[in-house]
């Protein structure tokens, strides 16, 4: 081939190497299709093929028969999950919202964050439990817990499961440090680098961060108001042979949608037919006005693993999550938790949480929270409407509104602009595997009380609309 | 080929299947060369070729042009870190002590466990902090913490580091859920499956469990009363190109030995010469009568990463550990902690710990604990002597005695026998990569108050000595 061809090939190879170096492409990630990439880069398909073949020869990427090229992850520098640098300049990646909102200045407004304001939480009940804990046995204050975690809390969870029609036993529940850690343990038990995992598109951004850490190949399923697009889901299960599907069936993050009974049945049937495991994240369950379909209930905790935590409704400062699954998987998860954390979650934390849940005030508290959120969802939608920001749907519960911006506005630019004014937003593409949510923002209606939000948003949108 | 050939081929295939099933060979691992394996197994190369071809046909392994055969990782069972089964029948593996002691019946005696009795801990100070917490701001009770964890606790750690001569900044410390999780995050950042890691032989059994979860190749360095055998260490570093060395320099677990200045200097020099990172676990530091040499101090937190926790001296129920390292590594660890746990440790937990550490009573408490342990080490050594159980050395601090049993006694049999009588021991080989500690037991002198221990031990030893 001629010199120009060589140069173009080299340029493509460098572009891909850079993507890999800064983890825009992680191990197990699929490279763009030859045709698509050729179109994007304005070169001939043969140039892309040449570049891919050479990178494959170098072992940087690997061809899989009939399914394109994948990053091998050979000779990687320390696993940097994200582009580093000053927060403002940092790439808008799956960590962007987490790091901005967790480390936000106390004076910052956080309509993009994923939790309720501190004064919405059941703090009075918690203070009562803390006083009780100050009088507890020495053993509770200073000993490691049992490998499965406090029995009192596991029994409370079992009682809730029973109300839903799930008959489980205490040895099917493992307490963990968080819902995220629960999923991490499951990934460690069931996944290997290069495995395929299905997620919703859009999905909770930290599912993407977590799966990147496991170096698996992530396939996004378009999400609809009644759950994942069933046809796309069934095709992906048949074609990619995924090991795992991770989802929220109820009050899905970020859309707030809830799976329909028909979709739930077909998703579970497809998983069963192909021996795929499902992780159903229940972290928003207590925000539901009434129970909606659950994969774990249809399945009876066989191939569906239920995980959850108390961070959204009780306290995020007292770390505790759980896994409910087949007893043999729990045994494997216990060993993994010992190996990687030594013990389970803080017995003191589990005791505080069990105390609040068992107390009569918790149900009343959640009823009040649900009423406040219903009002807040309506009010925020009304305040966003004049800005041309429209909810994708009106959720039946929870604190998220997944909203579409006017066509000429890029939510990543809006988010970066707002950050300069101490307003943390959640731009659509941090949730989207296919980067197809450029015009969406996820709003937390409980964090929108301050009038400044609308003003900053308006300025940010006009500034972003003007920018190239 | 003849029947004998078929049988030999089948035997080879089964041998390889077993290696894969128990993860001696992981996904992507290269199988032995045809010639080498033929020699090892005493069969003809053609038999090995036949076995490899059939396993490849089954999809268990895959040939790569010109570079041999590799494990595909297809259809792997869940990652089982240990042999399952009823506790009593369970294999004496690196999880044995953890699971037996964490889940022991409250009436059981635990001379094999790795913590102090609850009534030795600073519970009064903790109760005081819990009462204070019940009056804390809503934010502390219910919000997620910052990504690095509570600044108050990080500052207290920095002050202690400064006393040792380590000049670090607050952005060099990351709070974690436990010391073990701190090492797990470091492994996730720096290791890839198949990397080589050095540990002491014997070493803390959970280092073995954790490294097994990371599917790395672990090389044990014989441990001496002055630290790792320097000659063996230097040879292993040169020959195996390890990425990491994980150790306790002071009050080493299980031996109680402390590294000498000369050994510390040579270990760090070897690591520097070969670009190896060292993880120095400080979990027993507060039990030292006075400071001993530290790799992290010699190195100034460049290639040495310091980890620790408060589980041994303050509370194991309030989960919190830390990592101190180069700022760029901390950034990577923060992303990994977000991806796998979402937030750092409980802000409430960090606040309770900071409160106790800052309070004047903690230093006095630790002085008293050190005095009690000095007495207990002497008393227990005196009580074991008549049983023919002799300390390998008398540690200068801490609660462990690493003891040698009479020649005809297998500590694993003794431990299984004692478990039947509700006495949990720590048999030597759970600490030994080379299984060369069959005649050792690790005793926790703080857990030997009950006279029954000696009686059960005597019976167990005579029973075990008699058994084949």
Task: Please provide a written account of the structure.
- 2 copies of one chain form a homodimer.
- Chain A is built from 17 helices and 14 strands.
- Chain A is an alpha/beta fold.
- Chain A has 3 domains: 3-71, Winged helix-like DNA-binding domain superfamily/Winged helix DNA-binding domain (Arc Repressor Mutant, subunit A); 90-119 and 363-466, Alpha-Beta Complex (Aspartate Aminotransferase, domain 1); 122-360, Aspartate Aminotransferase, domain 2.
- In chain A, the strands form 3 sheets. Chain A has an 8-stranded mixed sheet, with helices on both faces.
- The radius of gyration of chain A is 23 Å and the shape is globular.
- Chains A and B meet through helix 4, helix 5, helix 6, helix 8 and helix 9 of A and helix 4, helix 5, helix 6, helix 8 and helix 9 of B.
Which keywords apply here?
alpha/beta; DNA-binding transcription factor activity (chains A, B); homodimer; Aminotransferase_I/II_large (chains A, B); transferase (chains A, B); 468 residues; Aspartate Aminotransferase, domain 1; eight-stranded mixed beta sheet; Arc Repressor Mutant, subunit A; Aspartate Aminotransferase, domain 2; pyridoxal phosphate (chains A, B); four-stranded antiparallel beta sheet; DNA-binding (chains A, B); 17 helices
